[in-house]
Amino acid sequence: MARRKERPLRKTTPEPAPVLRLTPAFDWRRHIFAVATVWVIALAAYANSFGGELTFDSQVIVHDDPRIRAATSQNVSQIWSQGYWYDNADPTLYRPLTTLSYLFNYSVLGNGAHPVGYHWINFMLHAIDALLVYCLGMTIFRDTAKSVALAALWAVHPVLTESVTYVVGRADMLAAFGVLAGLLCHVKALSETGIRKVAWLVGLAAAAAIGIFSKESAGVLIAVML
User: Fold this and answer.
1) Predicted pLDDT at 17
2) Looking at the predicted structure, is the pLDDT value of residue 145 above 50?
3) What is the average per-residue pLDDT within 105-116?
4) CB within 8 Å of 222: residues ≥ 6 apart
5) How high is the pLDDT of residue 8?
6) Where is pLDDT greater, at 206 or 57?
7) Nearest CA to 222 among 136, 207, 56?
8) N or C terminus of the chain: which is more exposed, having fewer CB within 10 Å?
9) Which among 136, 71, 74 is positioned nearest to 101, based on CA atoms?
10) How would you write the chain as a 3-class SS string?
């Protein structure tokens, strides 16, 4: 009885293992468009506020403070060594970075007592905060649409109207920057090791300092981190 010849097995090249991606490929164009959308929405909401005058506390803090009328070392030293109110009505209120931002408007940019420049800086700070909220949304949701919705809600929420349109509301936006940037640095530091972890922790410390020296309410960052 003849034996049937067995066909030799074909040698096949093994298929490469699939690459595991922990996060989707980063697309700058998609995120730039998303953030630009949020900024356009915010600008549409606040464009009519740029003509607002310096009223109430803004008149005292900006118009009447002699420390911001010239960018000199003496004025900068007084800002760092004195209270928020130039006449020391409340020396325990210490917000030197906020006052320095008014000096930047008044003396460096030459805005003086004209309010438009102050409103633009306020809006730019608000736009930066909205960008940080978008980044926080991407960290939580990993979804562009949800992050845009979160940032847009932040950008036009009525509770922030006074902070954006009222010149001295800048202290709130600088404090918000410290809290949001500090929280993002904290999240990144938790997932890194070595020199990168140290770098994110340094960023956290810098953000916290900006917030605290702008308005005392930025101390909430500690609670948010916990």
Assistant:
1) 44
2) yes
3) 92
4) none
5) 55
6) 206
7) 207
8) N
9) 71
10) CCCCCCCCCCCCCCCCCCCCCCCCCCCHHHHHHHHHHHHHHHHHHHHHHCCCCCCCHHHHHHHCCHHHCCCCHHHHHHHHHCCCCCCCCCCCCCCHHHHHHHHHHHHHCCCCCCCHHHHHHHHHHHHHHHHHHHHHHHHHHCCHHHHHHHHHHHHHCHHHHHHHHCHHHHHHHHHHHHHHHHHHHHHHHHCCCHHHHHHHHHHHHHHHHHHHCCCHHHHHHHHHHC
Tokens standing for residue 144: 């562009």
Residues recorded for the chain = 226
Contact call for residues 79 and 67 (beta carbons, < 8 A): yes
Handedness of CA 190, 192, 197, 200 (dihedral sign): negative
CA distances from 149 to 87, 119, 173 (A): 43, 25, 20
Structure tokens at 125: 């700070």
- The percent of residues above 70 in pLDDT, for the chain, comes to 87
Query: pLDDT tens digit string along 112-142?
Result: 889 999 999 999 999 999 999 999 999 999 9
